[in-house]
Amino acid sequence: MVLSTQTSATTLDGAALRRDFPILNQPQPEGRPPLAFLDSAASSQKPEQVIQAIDTYYRTINANIHRGVYELSEAATAAYEAARQTMATFLNARQARECIFVRNTTEAINLAANAWGRSNLTANDRIVLTVMEHHSNLVPWHMLREEIGFSIDYIPLTDDHQLDMTVYAQLLEQKPKLVGFAHVSNAIGALNDVAAMTRMAHDAGAAVLVDAAQSVPHMPVDVQALDVDFLALSGHKMVGPMGSGVLYGKRELLEAMPPYMGGGSMIRKVTLDGTTFADIPARFEAGTPAVADQVGLAAAADYLTAVGLEAIREHELELLDYAMEQLPSVPHLTMYGPEDLSKRSGVISFTLGSIHPHDVAAILDGENIAVRAGHHCAQPLMAALGVVATTRASFYMYNTRDDVDRLVAGLHKANEVFGQV
Amino acid sequence: MVLSTQTSATTLDGAALRRDFPILNQPQPEGRPPLAFLDSAASSQKPEQVIQAIDTYYRTINANIHRGVYELSEAATAAYEAARQTMATFLNARQARECIFVRNTTEAINLAANAWGRSNLTANDRIVLTVMEHHSNLVPWHMLREEIGFSIDYIPLTDDHQLDMTVYAQLLEQKPKLVGFAHVSNAIGALNDVAAMTRMAHDAGAAVLVDAAQSVPHMPVDVQALDVDFLALSGHKMVGPMGSGVLYGKRELLEAMPPYMGGGSMIRKVTLDGTTFADIPARFEAGTPAVADQVGLAAAADYLTAVGLEAIREHELELLDYAMEQLPSVPHLTMYGPEDLSKRSGVISFTLGSIHPHDVAAILDGENIAVRAGHHCAQPLMAALGVVATTRASFYMYNTRDDVDRLVAGLHKANEVFGQV
Amino acid sequence: MAESIYRELILEHNKNPQNRGTLDPADYSYQDTNPLCGDEVRIDVRVADDKISEIAFSGRGCAISQASASILTEMVKGQPLDEVKALSKEDLLDELGIPLSPARLKCALLSLKVLKAGIYGVNAAEDVWQ
Amino acid sequence: MAESIYRELILEHNKNPQNRGTLDPADYSYQDTNPLCGDEVRIDVRVADDKISEIAFSGRGCAISQASASILTEMVKGQPLDEVKALSKEDLLDELGIPLSPARLKCALLSLKVLKAGIYGVNAAEDVWQ
Ligand SMILES: Cc1ncc(COP(=O)(O)O)c(C=O)c1O
Ligand SMILES: Cc1ncc(COP(=O)(O)O)c(C=O)c1O
Fold first, then answer.
1. Which of A249, A269, C16, C80 has its CA 20 to 30 A from that of B136?
2. What is residue B277's three-state secondary structure?
3. Phi/psi of residue A338, each to 5°?
C-alpha cells in the first residue's frame, strides 16, 4: 500500500477543526461516547461560520433579489452575486456568470442534460458514461434517452476498481457527443484523472461533464486547469447548506443553451404569444432563488479555502493510510476500491462476511459511529462489484485517528454479535 | 368602497408581531426612520421562530436523509417527513405524500407542467390561463407548447380588473385539458374565486392548477374545500425560508405522472439499461433535498397557524381599507385592481402621474419605505392595464397604520421632488 | 440501543431461517422491495380449506427483514386466511420483541406487507407501511 | 441617499430631454433593455467625417436612464468616433454626478451600453455593464 502524497507535514488538526462544528460537540446521553461521524460522503456537517452566515442573512439583509430599488433588496442582490463570484473564484472559473446556482448536484446534472442534451443530441448520437456513476448522473440521461433515443456506452471497471482507460479510448472512437463521469466515486472512493480523460474526450470532439460532488469538498478543483465543459457540485457535501449548489459551464456552451425551467428572472420579455429569454446566468435561475443557502455556500467555500484544500486532502489521505493499516485486523472484511491510495479519496466501502451491511451499520450506530450502508445510489456499480450493498465509512477534515480506531473496534464487535469468528 | 369582512374585532397586533421579526427591528443609521417594509408580496421577512428552526436543525440533527441507519440520519428523516405532514395539515391535504417539496412556486409549476403536461397534452389540446398570471405560470407553458404544440387561451380582465367569468365560461366550452390561474394576483392583488372556477373547470372536464404563492401566506387555504388538483406555493413569501415550497397534487394525479428530475431517492431500481421509479412523493424529489429549508417552512406554517390566518386576513383588509381612505389625498395617483376590497388581497399597485415607478420607489427608499417597482413578473398584465410598470406596496401581518401614513407622506414627497403639483 | 435489536431470536432466525425457499406452483406469490435500503422479500403461499397450508419466503436483506419473514411465516402457517387479514403490524412487532427506529420498522414490516399484498392486493397492504 | 440622486441636472434632463427622437435613415441604430427593470433606450447615429454628426435617442424608463441618455447624447454630439470608443463609464457617471447603487448604475449606463453596442458591436459594450 503506497501513499504517493507526502503526509508527514500534515498541517491540519482534525480535533481542533472539530470544535468549529457544533453538531459534533453536542452533549451525548449518559454513557454514550462522542459522535464518530464517518458519513460525510452522504452529507457533511456545518461549521459555525456557515450556520452564522445563514442566520445573519435572515436577520440583516433578507429581501427578494433583482428588480428591488430599496436598500435591503440591493443588499440581498449584492450578497447573492458576491456568492456567485466567490464560487467562481473558488473553482477558478473565468467569469462569475459561468456559475449557475442550483439546489444540488442532481439538479445541476438534470439542467445540463435537459438544456444541453435536448439541443445537442439526436437519436443517432452516442454519449459515454461510466459504471461507477451515482444515479444522479445516470437517471437524467436514461430519462432523456427515452425521449430522444440516443445511445449510451459505459466505461467498465478494471480489476483494481478503476475506470478502464483502454475501453474508454475505444468508446471515443465512436465519436460520442458527450462524456460524463464522476471525479470521485461516492461508493468506492475511486479518484478519476479528470484532466487526462477530458483531453481524450476533447480530442475525440466530445464535451465533458464532471460530477464533482465528491471531489470539490476534499481537494483543489480548478475548472480551467481541468478544462471540463460542465461541472456539478452540491453545497451540503462541502460544509455548506442543503439546498445550495453550482452547475459550472463554459460560457459559450451555456450561452448556446435553451433554458430548463421557466418563470420570473429568466425572461427578457413575456407576451401572451411567447417568451424571450435573459442572458446567463439568469436564464437558468427561474424564480426566487435560495439566496440564504447560496450565501451560506460562499461562506463554506471561504471556510474550505481558509483551512486549505491541499491540507484537507493530505489529512484524509493520512487517515485513509492509517485505516488501511488497521482494518485488515478485522476478520471477514472485504474492501472495494483501488489499492493505490493516490487513486482514492477518503472513502472506504466494505462488506463484513455474511453480515448484511445494514446490520453492520446498526451495530456501529450502537457505538455512536455513523456510517452509511446500502447501494449508495450506485446500483450499477454494486452489480459490477457483485454485491447488493456495502457499508461505507468516509472521512472529512474533522475526523481523527480515534474515529478510525473506533470503527475498527466496532467492526470487531459486529463480528462478535453475529457469532462470526 | 365596501369592506365586506367585519374588521372591528381584529385580534392581531401588527406592532407586537413586528417584534418577532429581527430584521424589522435592526438599528438604523442616525436620522433614518425605522424600516417600513411594504414588499412582502416579493418576499416576506422571517420571524425568530423560523430562523431558529434552521439554526437548530444544523446544530443538532443535520444529516442526509433516507437510507441512513444511524441516529442523526433517522432524526433528519423524521424532521423532514414531519415537515411534510405539517404542510399537509396546514393545507388540509388528505395525505402527506400529496405534498411534494420544491424550491419555490416556480419549480412547483415547472414540475406540474412537465410531468403532468408531457403525459397529458398533445398538439390538439387546449389549456386555459389568465392574463393576470405571474411569469412563472406562463413561461413553463410557453416552453412546453414549443415542444408539444397545444393551444393556450387566456381569460381577460373586466373593467374592474377581475377575471372575466363570461369569457371563462366560453373558453371552457372548448374542453380544455387544464385551467391554471393565480389565487391572488401578485401585481394588482385581485383575489380569484378558486372554488367556483374549479367547479366550472371540473364540470367541463379540465384539471385545475392554482398558483397560491400570494394566497397561502395571507388567508386560510384548504385544498379539499377548494377541490383543486394542483396547488403551488413558495415558503419565502409565507415567513418561511428561501428555497422551500410545496407542490400539492391529488394523489391519483401524482401517481399517474412520470418524474421530472432524475437522480437519487426517486428510483426503485437502476441498471445500465434503464430506471424504474419510486412511489410518490419520492418520485418527484430527486437528490438531496433542502431539508433545513423545508423544516423551516413547517416552522413558518406553525407560526402562521399560531397567529391565525383569519386574523392575518382581517388585519390586512383593515390596512387596505385604511390605505384606500388615505391614498386619494395624493395628487396624480392611479390605482389598479378591483374596487371591491373583498375581491382583493393587501396589495396596492399604482402609478404616480408621469413619474416613473422606479423613481417613486427610489424616493420612498429615501424615507426607508420598501416597495417594489416594475412589471412584477406580469408583463402581459401590465400590457392589459396599458402601463409598462407600476409601483406596488404590499401588506403583511407586521405592517401597521403607521406604515400606511408614511407611504402616503412619501408619495406626496415624490410629487414634490418631481415638481408634479 | 441499536445493539439490543439483535436479540437471540432475531439472530437465530437470521441464521436458521424457517420456511426459506419457494413454492411452485403457488396460490399466491408476491415480491416487494424496500426502496430505501434494497431489502427484498418474496412469499409464496398455498391454500387448502381456506387455510395457509404451505408457505415459503425468499429474498435477501438485513437480519431484521429476513428474521421477520421467517418469524412471520411461522406465525401464519396453518392459520385461516381470515386471521391473516386481521393480523396487525403490532402482532408481528410483538413477536419480534425489539425496539425499532422508523427506518428499521420498514425492514421489519416488509414481510407482512408482502404477505398481505399477495393475498389481498396492494391496497390492503398499504396501511402496513404508512 | 436615494433622494440625492434626483439632483437638478437629472430632473431637468428628464423633463426636457435633449436629442430626443429618431433618425431615419441612420448610420448606426441600436436598442436595448435593462431586463431587471424594463428601461428601454434606442440610439440612432449619423456619421460624417468620422464624427457623430447627428444623434437621437428614444425609449422609456426611469428618470436616471432617460436623463443619462439625454446627457450622453450631448456629450458625444460632434465628437470623433474614436473618442466615443474611449469614453468610459466613469466619464458618464462623472457627468451625472450622483451616487448610484448597483441596480441604478445599470439604469444610468444603459445609454452608454447602447451607444457602444450600436457603433462597435455588442462585445465592445460588454464591459460597460459587467
Ligand atoms: C402569484 C405568484 N406566482 C408565482 C411567483 C413565483 O414565486 P417564486 O419566485 O417563489 O417561485 C410569485 C412570486 O414572485 C407570485 O407572486
Ligand atoms: C458522486 C455523487 N454524485 C451525485 C450526488 C448527488 O448529490 P445530491 O444528492 O446533493 O444531488 C452524490 C451524493 O449523493 C454523489 O456522491
1. A249
2. strand
3. -55, 145
Give exposure, B4-30, as e/b (b: 16+ Cβ within 10 Å): eeeeeebebebeebbebbbbbeeeeee
Atom number in ligand 1 closest to CA B237: 10
Q: Residue B258 carries which DSSP code?
A: P
Sequence-ordered strand ranges (E) for B49-130: 99-101, 126-130
Q: Is the CB of B213 under 6 A from ligand 1?
A: yes
> Which of C7, C32, C16, C19 lies closest to C116 in space, CA to CA?
C32
Q: Which residues contact B166 (CB under 8 A, 6 or more apart)?
A: none
The burial class, CB within 10 Å (0-12 / 13-18 / 19+), for A281 is buried
B74 and C36 within 8 Å at the Cβ level: the answer is: no
In angstroms, the CA B40 to CA A320 distance is 51
SS3 of B341, please?
helix
CB C11 within 8 A of CB C27: no
ipTM here: 0.94
B234 in contact with ligand 1, CB cutoff 6 A: yes
Chains near A (3 or more Cβ pairs under 8 Å) = B, C, D
Q: What pairing do the DSSP bridges indicate for beta strands A126-130 and A178-182?
A: parallel
Which residues have a Cβ under 8 Å from the Cβ of C49 and sit 6 or more positions away?
none
- Which of B8-22, B131-145, D65-79 is predicted least confidently? B8-22
Distance CA D42, CA D62 (A): 14
Calculate Rg over the CA atoms of chain B: 22
Find where cell 412487532 sits.
C93
For the residues of A118-165, what is the DSSP string, one character each? HHH--TT-EEEEETT--GGGTHHHHHHHHHH--EEEEE-B-TTSSB-H
d(CA A405, CA A402): 5
Domains defined for chain A, CATH in brackets: 14-44+308-416 (3.90.1150.10), 51-305 (3.40.640.10)
B99 is an active site residue = no
The answer to whether residue C23 is domain-embedded is yes
Cell triple for C127:
396501511
Cell of D33: 433593455
**pLDDT-above-90 percentage for chain A:** 95
Q: Which ligand approaches the C-alpha of residue B265 most closely? A: 2
Report chain A's terminal Cα–Cα distance, integer Å. Answer: 26
Is residue A276 scored above 90 in pLDDT? Answer: yes
Give residues with Cβ within 8 angstroms of A285, minimum separation 6: A100, A101, A265, A266
Rounded-to-integer distance, Cα A261 and Cα C69, Å: 45
Find the range with the poorest average confidence among B282-296, C5-19, D115-129: D115-129
Beta-carbon separation of C35 and B78 below 8 A? no
Q: Residue A378: which residues within 8 A CB-CB, separation 6 or more? A: A132, A133, A134, A135, A185, A186, A187
Between the CA of B161 and the centroid of ligand 2 the distance, in Å, is 47
**What are the Cα distances from residue B175, in Å, to A202, B124, B208, B250?**
51, 11, 13, 21
- Residue that has been written with the C-alpha cell 419520492 in this structure: B282
Range of the domain at C67: 2-121
Confidence of residue A11 (pLDDT cuts 50, 70, 90): confident
Cα torsion B384, B387, B388, B393 to 10°: value is -100
| Sequence-ordered list of residues with C-beta below 8 angstroms from that of B234, at least 6 positions apart, any chain | A287, A288, B104, B105, B106, B213, B244, B245
Annotated active-site residue in A35, A207, A298, A377: A377
Q: How many CB atoms lie within 10 A of CB D14?
A: 22
Asked, for residue D129, whether it belongs to a domain, the answer is no
CATH no. for residue C18? Answer: 3.90.1010.10
Alpha carbons A282 and A259: distance in angstroms, whole number: 10
Average pLDDT over residues D84-98: 93
Instruction: Indicate the number of domains in chain D.
Output: 1
Q: Give, to the nearest 10 degrees, the angle between helix C102-120 and helix C122-129.
A: 160
Inside any domain, residue D127: no
